[in-house]
Amino acid sequence: MTEPLVRIRGLGKSFGPTRVLEGVDLDVGRGEAVVVIGPSGSGKTTLLRCINVLETYDEGSIQVDGVEVGYDGPPGPGRRPRRDGELARIRADIGMVFQLFNLFPHLTALENVMLGLTRVRGMPKAEARARAEHWLARVGLSDRMSNLPGQLSGGQQQRVGIARAVAMEPKVLLLDEITSALDPELVGEVLSAVQQLARDGMTMVVVTHEMTFARDVGTRIVFMDAARVVAEGTPREILVEPRHERLRSFLARIEMKGH
């Protein structure tokens, strides 16, 4: 069996006295879209932020393509946190799209996507421009490349954010509740852009409260509750035939909200 692209073992994280991740184990294979669901406060976003080392983890191991992301070695006494330069190199291979769009307001859509390519990847401007144009076209924004973020709808801004992350050709793409700040009528356009990436074989870890999206995009769904992974399986096993009592009550609450 091939090694997973993302390998998480025994992951632990606390904020003061509050335990937010407890003994989390997770594998993500190449080309797999793993969707993480669960109630608010279950640790989903913190898990993503630890994979990208936006949060340091206290215990355990996170490896992306065989490299320990947050420390200079596997768990054990004496391992040191990565230095900023090392982190920057590792993060360049881990794309992240956030709830809020985080675009530079004074740069056009095209310039927002080009920035990381020229600054981080050191790409010549003409090559960066061609790649940025390609990805903006792929997310349906060919006619909006010269617009500033303030001239774009929320859904369009989020699609620029996706293009910016994917243009870097990351090994894995992390998506954190990317539709939660959007008006309902704008959600579909963002989800279809992500579904296309999934069909193209982009490795993704997706946190979402949109169960239809989870079902349509996920090759595997992970249910977290109270800082732990409680259940995982195919979309059918998790969403249609849930066996775990906590998972069943979570899905029932979601369904009630939807009606």
Give the oligomeric state.
single chain
Strand content bin = 15-25%
**Portion of residues within helices:** 25-40%
Number of strands: 10
- In DSSP terms (H or I, runs of 4 or more residues), the helix count works out at 9
Largest sheet: 6 strands, mixed
Order of strands in the sheet with most strands: 6-7-8-3-9-10
Rg on CA atoms, Å: 18 Å
Order of helices and strands: EEEHEEHEHHHEHEHEEHH
Alpha-carbon distance between the two ends: 43 Å
Q: Uncertain regions: pLDDT < 50 for 5+ in a row?
A: none
Overall shape: it is globular
Mean pLDDT figure: 91
Assign the structural class, choosing from mainly alpha, mainly beta, alpha/beta, alpha+beta, or little secondary structure. Answer: alpha/beta
Structure characterization notes:
Strand 7, helix 6 and strand 8 form a beta-alpha-beta unit. The chain contains nine helices and ten strands. The chain has 259 residues and is an alpha/beta fold. It has helices at residues 44-51, 84-91, 109-119, 125-138, 154-167, 184-199, 211-217, 235-240, 245-258, and strands at 6-15, 18-28, 33-37, 59-64, 67-68, 94-97, 172-176, 204-207, 220-225, 228-233. A six-stranded mixed sheet has the order 6-7-8-3-9-10, with helices on both faces. A four-stranded antiparallel sheet has the order 2-1-4-5, covered by helices on one side. 38% of the residues lie in helices and 23% in strands. The longest helix is centred in the C-terminal third of the chain and has 16 residues, at 184-199. The model has no long low-confidence stretch (mean pLDDT 91).
